[in-house]
Amino acid sequence: MRKLVLLIIFTCSSVYAQTVSTAKPWTYWWWMGSAVSERDITLQLQGFQKAGLGGVHIIPIYGVKGYEKEFLPFLSVEWLKMMGHTVREGKRLGIGVDMTTGTGWPFGGPNVTADMAAKTMSVKNGDIAVQPTGQKVKRAAPGGEGLVFDPFHKRAMAQYLIRFDSSFLQIKDRPRAMYMDSYEAYGANWTADFQEEFKKRRGYDFIARLNLFTDTTDRKESQLVKIDYHETLAELLRERYAHVWTDWSRQHGFKTRYQAHGSPGNLLDLYDEADIPETESFGSSRFPIPGLSIDPDYSVKQFGTPNPLGMKFASSAAHFSGKYLVSSETGTWLGNHFKVSLSQVKPQIDELFTAGINHIFYHGTTYSPASEVYPGWLFYASTHFGATSHFAEYFPLLNRYVENCQNILQNTRPDNDVLVYFPIHDLWATRTQFAGGIHSLGVHHVDEWLLGLPFGKLSEKLWRSGFSFDYVSESQLKRLSVDKSGNLDSGGSIYKTIIIPESVFMSEQTLKELTRLAKRGARVIFEERSPATVTGYVNHRAREEKFKAGINELKRIETVSVSADWKASLIANGAVEEELSERGLTFIRKRLDHKVMYFIANVGNTFTEGWLTISKGQNFEHYDPLTGKESALTHRKHRGKTEVYLSLLPGQSCFLKQVSENRADDSAVVSLKNAMELSGIWAVRFLNGRPALPADASTGTLKSWTEFSDAALYFSGKGLYTLKFNLSHEFVGKQGLSLDLGEVREIASVKINGVPLGVAWSIPFRLAIAPEVLKAGDNLLEIEVSNLSANYMRLRDTQAPEWKKFYDINMADITYGKFSAAKWEPMPSGLLGPVRLLYP
């Protein structure tokens, strides 16, 4: 494993012209008003390097009140000078640089004329009414204000990019990649030549069938017209928006990061346009991990929760096409500002890893001058990963964990058995409540478009049953070939079989491709039944007859099955059902040099330890990316199968790597079945923090330090807990001991008898104890605990709220209301325990 990691570090640092690491996490970096200076840019990049970040993503946004004279207009000579300085300093420090092709989001600005602006169509009294949406760039920076352009327009993207052509001619030091945020052109559903393009692509006049388009009875003719309308929009969006932007970027030497979600198109095709498809993790996933803090003010109804099935659209596009990286906007609105802990961040990242993401971008950090008083400049949307964050001192520990994981995830190939066809036509056939009457495929409320479809239901069952899978679109089917063993080869991945979820509609093109693949030996499964109706309104009756004949011909091919027992069919076709999922664990399976590797996360509360069957491979070693330690994994033969003994508590994660030989048999199982609570009088001394140090305290019962005194109610900082405890000789030199801290709010650095055990920053708050640390008789336990900054901000917002001095939205709370910490209840802080010594 050690040789593997060293090799991977070298590989990651030499992929791009910049000597940077993509294994390290990167961060969004908001330039407020672009009021930046070379000195502070360098200082902050040095801070990022020290924290263990690999790169930044520049996003110019609205400014700070009082700094107007320092605003730099976007793409001005002065702005480009600062960007060039950032890239040069990044190269010197090993920090990569990306930038948005614009300011704020979505694309638009001062060079967007009225004829280029986004348009919305509605049907009134049987006629089409078209008008501008009037939408302007959201959170625009100085020099970036203006209308959002029409994403379906024939020339809008090309004209928009001319501004960048002339600007980039002036500079030689350029970012690694261009970035496009999620589709948020609200209500845009029309373009000037839509009617002409519709007739050319669909074969009939859309206006002549308006009565069917607006029909609410869901009869077949109406559904067919709705499908045709959406398919036309989807094609225009890909050809005129995504493809033009990615093509322009590559011509200028940039890679592309693209958040395709939210679009009224097939996400698989749109993500596929980018070099680095990017998904988004917004809000808290509500993991049932015991002790996990979740901000109760977050509105699931308003914003939804992250879902790995939505994330898999980006990773599927990457896996299918063999793209090296797939990224994610990570940690957005995990909780209100000043309330997010590192222990909340880790499981969200683990969820992303199991969904196939391998290039983390924190959301995020804000450029803030070194001279600015606490808390400095902040972007309205949490989470704050910057230098003034309450977890800044321990941020490198999270980053080291992410780097350890991504070192492996970026340099192993996906090993997914199943391709799941995405029958988007069934979605397009339905009515929608989204703006403009179009289906916007967002990652926030996947329940509104994904989970209710048979496709979503099947994908959820596959996920919970332990099958490894990617999604595939109609257009991607064309790129599949079939090898001698009947496996499907996408050019980026190999799959055992393809499954078609229960669906009503299918295009002739999809039927043609499935027939081609099946005739060459590909294994195809229809869940429950085959589609009954061909898409396309024009000449539908005649085409339907041919389609039904073609479906019947396809089903007669030996490798094609129609099955209600899709699980049995998948297994018969070579797909593997991993026991890991049945036991409450999530995973992703990868390959390296013909050997399998698993990343496994326990984001539930049902598994702690036990024997598990690993379906692919026999001998495995265990790698803990949190500590960087590797060890043999105990195994045994049981009922004809090889099992491994895995200890993985809720909140923990690990890698299992297949090895040639494993000598650790079942006699090596070590389980911490015994516990001894360490109790007595705890002395508490406050070391540093705001607004002032509370008085020393002592307590026989561990509880939140907010209960110690009025001063402690508002304290944010670090407190030292000290306890003397007595041990018998049996613990001296004993192997396999651990210290369980119980509940920690929020980070604990631990020593026993002056020997550092480490820092506990994620659940479970446990640290190993080396045999030589404990002694017979009295022992001294010292635990430094750091809390959140929320309690201090309760006081700060009462006494001095002037730090909220930003334009546009200024500061918002987690429900997008006006931000104020003044009325918050005190957050639990310190060591809550119980503290226990665990031993075999």
TrEMBL record:
InterPro entries: Class_I_gatase-like (IPR029062), Galactose-bd-like_sf (IPR008979), Ulvan_degrading_GH (IPR053161). Pfam families: Glyco_hydro_106 (PF17132). The keyword Repeat does not apply. Keywords: Signal. Residues 1-17 form the signal peptide. It comes from the Bacteria. The keyword Transcription does not apply. This is Glycoside hydrolase. It comes from Dyadobacter helix.
